[in-house]
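look at this one:
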Amino acid sequence: MSLVQNHPLGFVFKIYVQPRSSKNQIDGLYGDALKIKLKALPVGGEANKMCLQFLAKHLDIPKASLEIMSGHSSRTKRILLKNLDSPVSASQKEQQTRKIESRLTAFQKTS
């Protein structure tokens, strides 16, 4: 199963957030989700904000391109990466999927 799934608005991937960590980092896979450790506390949406900032930085995209689709109050979240380009063909979408997946997994245990 692929880490990144196509969605009509872009791409969706699942993450598992571990708040109150000593540093912000991608820490491999947790089941079918990307595990992300964050310094932020899970209070008042702080961990959600930091999560989107962290992902945007590592994917080198604007933070506005990311949205939490589900799991706002859960450790497991579904993230929507909105299409950055105009409508694309199926082959272009497949290439983008592989590119995003490789960027996500390339940052394991870094930062």
In short: The domain at 4-106 is CATH 3.30.1200.10 (Conserved Hypothetical Protein Mth637; Chain: A;). Residues 90-106 form the longest helix (17 residues). The CA atoms of residues 11 and 31 lie 19 Å apart.
